[in-house]
Amino acid sequence: MQRKISPVVKQAVAHYIAQSELLTEQCNSAALQQVRKQAQALLTEQAFPTQRDENWQYTRLTGFVQNHFDIKPALPVTSEQIRQFMPDFPVIMVVFVDGWFNEGLSDDLESLPNGVIYESFRDAADIVGESSKLYEREEEINKEPFGVLNSLLLADGFYLQLANNASLELPFFVLHIQTRGNQMSNVRNRIELGENAELTLVERYVSLVEAFEGDNLNACTNVVTEIELAKYARFKQVVMQEQNDNAFYFNNQFIEQADNSNFNTFYGALGSQLSRHQNHIFMNGEYIESQQNSACLAKDKQTVDSRTDTQHNDVWGNSQQLHKYVLTDSAVGVFNGMIRVDQKAQKTDGQMDNKNLLLSDVAKMDTKPQLEIYADDVKCSHGSASGQIDKNQIFYLQARGIRRAEAIKMITHAFLLEPAESITNDKVRHWVTNRLSAGLASIHQ
């Protein structure tokens, strides 16, 4: 049955296809051209999802569809302008401006340790050898509507490879800056860790508000990241989304794990009028561990959407999840988590918990934790709870001389900061909790 597409959506589709064709005119890669051509056919057929689509029932794309974002060259940015976004601990820093890698603002990547390779995604074919390997997960990526859009507009991103036993002493820090309205920052990343390799990656998405012209603060970030972990590899990740409140943010991560590997990720959401962050984890070996935590804060009319799809495909897998939301004003929160346990995946331990704090009578939370189990020797659970602050908690603090407003602030902070405890690097965890605390301070003013 032919999918009905509204005239407004058709215009958006035509706009992005035209943007893709402009990029293709400057592209010499036959493999990339084929990826874009395939994505063009899919977008033409499927367009963008509506609320009639189950996975988008609570996440309205009206605002995104009405904005026709362009892919333009990055505006000039100085080191002084980005200083405010740098962490307060030593890192190896890479900077993307409006979706484009900025070598001048990034650290010297020629001096990386032996066994560590960084290249732009466009140049990664020279390292991988067969460029088709860069696009071997396209079928999986294109199951997501914004994965299709990412393939259609694929222009820049990074490729990071760690050889067997390689590691970085400092966190690898990737800063994504939006500087212009109506801009699409479309980024594709690929990370490969060899056996027993170890990496800590911190990503931050921000808006340089003073660089925007007039009131046109809307911009869009659309990211796809592929992560491959070989046996015994250890990958720790923090993603902080702090774009201005008029921005849009979409991020799809595809993580494939081999035997005895460990994946630990934390997502913090503070900005954007609409954000959607998704992890797709394939636990394809024995004794794999994964941990996915998130802390999401939304105010005014923001919509914050966080999703996980965790597939246990072999024995003795262990996955842990804790997702917390704080919503105020007319904000909307969306959580959808799926744990799938294959028939082969005996002895699986999969735990998922979602807790939500509503600070206003009109804030709304839509949550759907799910289990799909085909093995009979497992220990899996999922749960969700939403509500307002317990009046007894407030009374308890007031009885000890703490003002009501300060009591609410203390309870909210303790609630939202809990997921960040999974961050094992002390300096990174301290920085993240400071960012979350700053976000909470803005709603308690």
Low-confidence stretches: none
The DSSP helix count reads 10
Rg measurement, Å: 21 Å
- Strands of the widest sheet, in order across it, are 2-1-5-7-9-11-13-15-17-19
Structural class: alpha/beta
Give a topology summary.
Blueprint: H1 7-25, H2 30-46, H3 62-66, H4 79-82, E1 92-97, E2 100-101, E3 116-120, H5 125-128, H6 138-141, H7 145-152, E4 158-162, E5 172-178, E6 184-193, E7 198-207, E8 220-229, E9 234-242, E10 248-257, E11 262-269, E12 274-283, E13 289-298, E14 303-312, E15 318-327, E16 332-341, E17 349-358, E18 364-373, E19 379-387, H8 391-398, H9 404-417, H10 426-443
Parallel strand pairs: 1-5, 4-6, 5-7, 6-8, 7-9, 8-10, 9-11, 10-12, 11-13, 12-14, 13-15, 14-16, 15-17, 16-18, 17-19
Antiparallel strand pairs: 1-2, 3-4
Report on the architecture of this protein:
- This protein has helices at residues 7-25, 30-46, 62-66, 79-82, 125-128, 138-141, 145-152, 391-398, 404-417, 426-443, and strands at residues 92-97, 100-101, 116-120, 158-162, 172-178, 184-193, 198-207, 220-229, 234-242, 248-257, 262-269, 274-283, 289-298, 303-312, 318-327, 332-341, 349-358, 364-373, 379-387.
- It has 445 residues and is of the alpha/beta class.
- The protein has one domain (77-388).
- It has a 10-stranded mixed β-sheet, with helices on one face. A 9-stranded mixed β-sheet has the order 3-4-6-8-10-12-14-16-18, covered by helices on one side.
- Strand 1 (92-97) and strand 2 form a beta hairpin.
- The longest helix is centred in the N-terminal third of the chain and has 19 residues, at 7-25.
- The protein starts with 6 loop residues before the first helix and ends with a helix.
